[in-house]
């Protein structure tokens, strides 16, 4: 079983290196008044780091369900 996932340590190392080289600015501007911006502006321009986290969680859940369904199908 471990032979199937030989590439996982490589992926983890590449992601870790990429995360250490990403610079996130720490001088956050004050938020604009609520009526001045729309949901699209908030999602794509102000909260893009949160969006990446949500995508990772969504993909992890989908992968987990796929593995679970495959195990159930193989077990019966």
What is the average of the pLDDT values?
81
Roughly what percent helix?
Answer: 55-70%
Give the CA-CA distance, first to last residue.
20 Å
Specify the biggest β-sheet: none
What is the percentage of strand-forming residues? under 5%
| Uncertain parts | none
The radius of gyration computed from the alpha-carbon positions, rounded to a whole number of angstroms, is 19 Å
> Per the principal axes of the C-alpha atoms, what is the gross shape?
flat
Order of helices and strands: HHH
Protein structure class: mainly alpha
Indicate the topology.
Elements: H1 8-21, H2 39-46, H3 48-75
Essential attributes:
mainly alpha, 76 residues
Quickly describe the structure.
This protein has 76 residues and is mainly α.
How would you sum up this structure, described in words?
The chain is mainly α. The chain has a domain at 32-76. The protein has three helices and no strands. It has helices spanning 8-21, 39-46, 48-75. The model has no long low-confidence stretch (mean pLDDT 81).
């Amino acid at each position: 079983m471990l032979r199937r996932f030989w590439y996982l340590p490589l992926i983890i190392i590449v992601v870790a290196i990429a995360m250490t080289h990403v610079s996130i600015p720490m001088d956050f501007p004050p938020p604009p008044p609520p009526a001045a911006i729309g949901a699209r502006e908030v999602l794509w321009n102000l909260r893009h780091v949160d969006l990446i986290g949500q995508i990772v969680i969504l993909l992890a859940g989908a992968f987990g369900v796929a593995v679970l369904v495959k195990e159930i199908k193989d077990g019966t």
